[in-house]
Amino acid sequence: MKNKKGAEKILSVYWFAILIIIAGAVVAMVSLFYGTPYDVRDAEANIMINQVSNCLSENGKLNQKLFSEVNNFNENFNLKEECNFVFETEFKNERGEYFLEVDFYDLNNEKIFSILDGNSNLYADCKIENEKYKKLSKCVDREFYSLDHFSDDKVFKIKITAVVRKTEKNVK
Amino acid sequence: MLNKKESKKILTHCSFFSKNRRGQTSEAMTWIVATLIIIVLLGISIYAASLLSKLKIIDYKTEERSQDVVMEESLFSYFSIKESVVQEKVFESLKKMNQEEKFYEDFDSKFTQIKFNLEKYGK
Questions:
Q1: Which domain holds residue B9?
Q2: Is A161 on the interface with B (CB under 8 A)?
Q3: Has residue B62 been placed in a domain?
Q4: What is the pLDDT of residue B4?
Q5: Is residue B11 domain-shared with residue B36, that is, in the same domain?
Q6: Which chain B residues are closer than 8 Å to A172 by Cβ?
Q7: Which of these ranges, A32-46, A83-97, B87-101, has the smallest mean pLDDT?
Q8: Nearest CA to A49 among B68, B91, B107, B66?
Q9: Can you name the residues that pair with A140 across neighbouring β-strands?
Q10: What span, in angstroms and rounded, lies between the C-alpha atoms of B92 and A42?
């Protein structure tokens, strides 16, 4: 009888230990999965590209503000202001967490004009092939065609590159 | 003095390979193996959770998108071009982009839809 009671005590300690181990593992699994943030930089960069394409081109024609006069692009076009972008973030990165580049090409693929805004240093991250450092910034580029504001036969190919850093918030 | 029966009983009880000890050892082994299986299963689950956490990337392209604004912009400009040579050149380029899967929406259906709307409601 005494022996049986001792065995029961040992078993209950064992079950308690197993319970703690399982509970600990469940906590570890949940914190591992939910502790990792969603990487939304790809979606963010694509939304930025949509916003840029919407503000530069309307119904297939380039925005008049892009031109200072006929056949001449406006060198003072402020992308951030015209497209209602706010590049300031909660991070204390003075140079910024975003970069936007818009290149205008003719149909022979010759670059005619370019607009840059944001932290241009981030663009270098797009060139990195190393898998380990690929997480630094997310780069998305897309192309579309739009007509000259003043002519229905002059078409430009517009390449928009959006770079979002925000590594701290999106990658663990 | 112990009699023969009692001494045999004590000997059996003290023997290292007694039936009772063997039973206890096999029972302990069962618990140890069970514990190891539980720990291994939990380890696999934790590893799977860490692998799944790495897949928490919201890919704009693979998410169900109802429209591709950038592609639509190209199509609007395509239908606005007056010169057929330029129009053909742009269409070839758009087709190439479609083949390279650069669009997030079905190109052909959007092309037909915009064409139908422009013909119906006028440019």
A1: 4-53
A2: no
A3: no
A4: 58
A5: yes
A6: 53
A7: A83-97
A8: B68
A9: A162
A10: 28
